[in-house]
Amino acid sequence: MVLDKNTAKKTAELLLQINAIKLKPENPFIWASGWKSPIYCDNRILLSYPIIRNYVREEMAKQVESLYGQPDVIAGVATGAIGIGALVADTMGLPFIYVRPEPKSHGRQNQIEGQLEANQTVVVIEDLISTGKSSLNAVKALEKADANVKGMLAIFTYSFDTAKENFEKSEVELHTLSSYEHLIEQASETGYIKEEQLRTLTEWRINPSKWLQ
């Protein structure tokens, strides 16, 4: 769920501006899953732009506080959300931890890096939501460590139905700064994409796994 439309469109505008989100309907990307896609998102790029990363961290910190008050800990999902998660934690003056996709195969074999005590309240920071599986895997690891996960806040979501279903099934509350709908609206209004490209982006969103097959 996007809390504020103005923030959603501003975030989309900034991500397009620095090519963190690339729209290429005429020359599709191929995701690791094998899906063909007219869009590619790499929000880690924003860390290289101080003004934009500060905007994102301040908006995320503001929304975390609005939604959940002051949690005990901020957790980032590795690797994409480690940077922005640490910035949000720093802004709020809170401890930071991050969660690996799986436990390390050596050393202490940690999946959660940092200090986490049982029953502490945690808000999870994510950079991008596609199906939500990797994000929810991090939540499961935190809950296994007896954390009280209040919810998740991400920079951007593709708004796939499967992600919505996965979060609802897991009973995890998800909010995002921006979304696919706000992205293509912003791109269309600013002339970043043409009408024909807008149709392609809209069609892809209906059934992304089958697009161009």
SSE diagram, text form:
Elements: H1 5-17, E1 21-23, E2 29-30, E3 36-37, E4 39-41, H2 50-68, E5 73-77, H3 82-92, E6 96-99, E7 112-113, E8 121-129, H4 133-144, E9 148-157, H5 161-170, E10 174-179, H6 180-189, H7 195-206
Parallel strand pairs: 5-6, 5-8, 8-9, 9-10
Antiparallel strand pairs: 1-4, 2-3, 6-7
Helix pairs in contact: 1-2, 1-6, 2-3
Secondary-structure element series? HEEEEHEHEEEHEHEHH
CATH topology: Rossmann fold
Count of individual helical segments: 7
Largest sheet: 6 strands, mixed
What is the CATH architecture assignment? 3-Layer(aba) Sandwich
Q: What's the helical proportion of residues?
A: 40-55%
Which class do the helix and strand fractions yield? alpha/beta
**Beginning-to-end CA distance, first to last residue:** 30 Å
Give the averaged pLDDT, no decimals: 93
How many beta strands in the DSSP annotation?
A: 10
Please give the order of strands in the largest beta sheet.
7-6-5-8-9-10
Low-confidence segments, given as residue ranges, are none
Shape: globular
Number of domains: 1
Short summary:
By secondary structure, the chain is an alpha/beta fold. The chain is 41% helix and 22% strand. The protein has a single domain (5-210), classed as Rossmann fold.
Explain what this protein looks like in three dimensions.
With 213 residues, the chain is α/β, with parallel strands linked by helices. It has a single domain (5-210), classed as 3-Layer(aba) Sandwich (Rossmann fold), CATH 3.40.50. 41% of the residues lie in helices and 22% in strands. The chain has seven helices and ten strands. The chain has a six-stranded mixed beta sheet, sandwiched between helices. Helix 1 runs antiparallel to helix 2 and helix 1 crosses helix 6 (180-189). The chain starts with a helix and ends in a 7-residue tail after the last helix. 38% of the residues are buried.
